[in-house]
Amino acid sequence: MSLWTEHFHWSVWLRWEVLGWTIAALLAVGGIVLIFDQFGLVNVCFMLVATLMLAKVTHVAITSASDPAWQRVLFTFLLFGAIGVGIVEVVRGVNAYSEKKVRAEVEHRPELIQPKEPKQDSPRTQNTGNMQAPERTDIAWSFDTEEGWFTFLGMQTVPGPVSEPLILGFQAHGKNNLDDPILHFSGFVRSDTTNETFPIFLARDNKLLRPEDTLGIPRKAEFDLSAKPFPSNHPEGYLGAGMNASTFLRQYPELTFVFEYDGKRYVKHFTKRDVWTAVENFRRQSLGYDKP
User: Fold this and answer.
1) Higher pLDDT residue, 21 or 129?
2) Would the CA dihedral through 211, 212, 213, 219 be positive or negative?
3) Using CB atoms within 10 A as the burial measure, which of 59, 194, 226, 273 is most buried?
4) Which of the 8 DSSP states describes residue 40?
């Protein structure tokens, strides 16, 4: 146990020379990952620094037996308060910077005001998602309604100081308005930036079923679709899934949803403003930033 006591005991880690190098290394790592927009990891580094500093203050207060108790209590109280306020402000600053970068994806780029229109296929075989399209009533989609306009992305929040939502994947709720069942269907979601495609699945009983493994969609039935999840890049690996919002808006700023059913085709284009607004609405509603 002498090896542990001499090199790895908590009192060794709290020596000034060891503590100084540790804090410097954590701050350096935080600065580096900030360049790559890994805001969650930045906050973790800063919180570890604050934890080490609080531990050092506690250690000094306990080992200073020659000083009166009231002086040690006052010393601990004041430094705990200063360090606590400092780390809160740092984390808030990182989150504000993260939000600023997300907003900049739309507000500082003029092409977002007039997004390009997707190519149109033959009107005989395609339902374009336009409100006036003659075949629109075949299937009623949630994102074609005012209430569900920006519900096409599956998102979740992250416990802790990180304010960025995690984007899980594309989702759609529909209702078959036809008098006949839909026997054959397929589809995908495409990134209009990279041409990367994500096949769709029928979501049923907490399972994702491939279209060919189902019996279709019954007449007048409601159904849920989900695309293959977007790649995960969350540094803490929260639930093992999710891409942070700022990265998602850079890699997948525009999406196209294609749904083919019994010889017909529905195409819905989500512009850069649609995608950004969906993320921003979720962030405000779920993370408490919806006040004017």
Assistant:
1) 21
2) positive
3) 226
4) H
Give the model's pLDDT for residue 111: 47
The DSSP bridge partners found for residue 256 are: 190, 269
Q: Where are the domains of the chain?
A: 2-106, 118-287
Q: CA 42 to CA 19: how far, in whole Å?
A: 19
Residue 198 in 3-state DSSP?
strand
Q: Which two tokens stand for residue 213?
A: 């493994």
Distance CA 18, CA 16 (A): 6
Tell whether pTM > 0.70.
Answer: no
Q: pLDDT digits over 174-204, tens only? A: 999 999 999 999 999 999 988 999 999 999 8
Bridge partners, 270 (sequence order) = 255
Classify the C-alpha dihedral 203-160-41-284 as positive or negative.
Answer: positive
- pLDDT tens-digit readout, 207-224: 889 999 999 999 999 999
User: Which amino acid is present at 110?
Assistant: P
Q: How many CA atoms lie within 13 A of 64 on its CB side?
A: 16
Report in angstroms the alpha-carbon separations of 211 from 16, 129, 183, 185, 267.
62, 21, 10, 6, 18
